[in-house]
Each structure stands twice: as C-alpha cells, then as structure tokens.
Amino acid sequence: MWIGFQKLDAKLCEPSADEYRLCRFVSMADLLNNCVTIIGKVVIGEGDDDHATKLMRVKNIFGTLTIQNTQLKNFSFFDQLSMIVHLEDSDPVIKILGNKNLTYPKIGSISAIHTRFNKTAIIQDNHPKIFNWTNGTCELFGNSPYKMDLLVTYRRMLDYVGEDCGARVDLLSSFDPRMMTFISLIALLWFLV
Q1: Is pTM, for the whole model, over 0.85?
Q2: Which of the listed residues 9, 99, 111, 169 has the most CB atoms within 10 Å of its CB?
Q3: Pairing of strands 42-44, 22-24
Q4: pLDDT digits (tens, 9 = 90+) for 73-83
C-alpha cells in the first residue's frame, strides 16, 4: 500500500470499524493478537518480550514506536511492518533504548515513515554490537525490497541520534528539534548583533 502526502496536517479520528483489524495501543499485555493497524504510542518495555509476537501481523503504526529495556535479540516479530505515520512532533518517531541483548534491530519491510517534521530515531544504551549487521552504520530497515529504491530510501529516512549512533542524547530533558532550531536562530542573531 502506497500513501503519499504533500502537506501532512492531520489528526486521527476514533476508529469506527474493525474490518482492518484496527487497534488502539494501551499496553502490550492488553494488545490483541490480530492487529494490522495500531493507533498510539507503541511501547515494548521490560517484561513485554513474551507479548512481542502479538505484533507479527502489524503493517501500520499511527503513532510512535519505543522498544526499551527488553531482552530481545532482534525484531523478527515486525516482519510485516511497512509504514509508520507520526502526527505529533513532540516525540521522536522511534526510540530503541537499553536493550542489552539486541544485535539485529532490523524493523520489517518499511516503505515509508510519514511525519510532520520530526523524523528522529534515538538509539542508545543497547548491545555494543547492535549495528554489526550494517558494518557500523545506524540503519534499522536494511536494503529496500522495492523497485523504486531511491524513493523508498527517502521516504523512510530518519535522523539517527543517540550514543549508539554518535553523541549521547539526554533523555531527561524534553526533546524538541524545533526548539533547538529556535535556540540556534537566537544564538545566530545574538552573534550578528
């Protein structure tokens, strides 16, 4: 399924039918086994490893994805995931944090990540060899299985940050790239004056 946007200024309405196996995320324990589309901030946290198989049919996430403090070695349960749509810019679209056994973080068959602005993935405090499969390059999606490789590569491009991809990110402070742009602009203006 290909979805394109020229200007992404939208919000999600309450789902009215479950013909597409639409699920609203509350927790991994409460998530149904047959979801195809999930709405919400998907969080796979400590103790959720056994519930990860519930995500095997998921193709679309309308929200964010956080995988934190698990014992997972890979994300093979995300084999069908093809699209993430993130409509709120307050959070990074993907966070992979503190997964000490994670050595193969490939996520599904992603063809697109749509956001308004923030295309950030924070990856830190994971297994030291987390990106050996890509020769040390921060990459979650692998080679594109699609014919239009350049378009797909662009659509799923992320700004990788975090200690596993470069400089450590302070997760205790609020992370808003727009604020950093604003601060940089103020600093530049101050310097010029």
Answers
A1: no
A2: 99
A3: unpaired
A4: 999 999 999 99
